[in-house]
Amino acid sequence: MSRACRNCKIVIKEAACPICKGTDLSDDYSGLLVVIDPEGSQLAQKMNITKEGQYALKIR
Q1: Which of 34, 35, 38, 57 has the fewest beta carbons closer than 10 A?
Q2: Is residue 47 packed enough to be buried (19+ CB in 10 Å), middle (13-18) or exposed (0-12)?
Q3: pLDDT tens, residue by residue, 23-48
Q4: Which of 5, 6, 10 is nearest to 50 (CA)?
C-alpha cells in the first residue's frame, strides 16, 4: 500500500520518507503528479519539488 508524506507529498511504500526522513504519512490522498524533470516542470517548481518521483496533489 502506498502512502503520501504530509510534508513532502511524495508517494512511497516505505515506512519513512526518503526526502525529509519523516514518518507523518497518510494513505488518504488524491491526485498524482509524476515528476521526471523537476527543474523543467512548472508544477514541480510551484510545489517546491526538487527530486524525481510520484507526488500527491491533495493529502487528507
Answers
A1: 34
A2: middle
A3: 999 999 999 999 999 999 999 999 99
A4: 10
Number of domains forming the structure of the chain: 1
DSSP H helices in 1-60: 42-46
State the Cα–Cα distance between residues 3 and 16, nearest whole angstrom.
Answer: 10
pTM of the model: 0.92
What is the C-alpha end-to-end distance of the chain, expressed in Å?
16
Largest CA distance in the chain: 30
C-alpha cell recorded at residue 43: 508544477
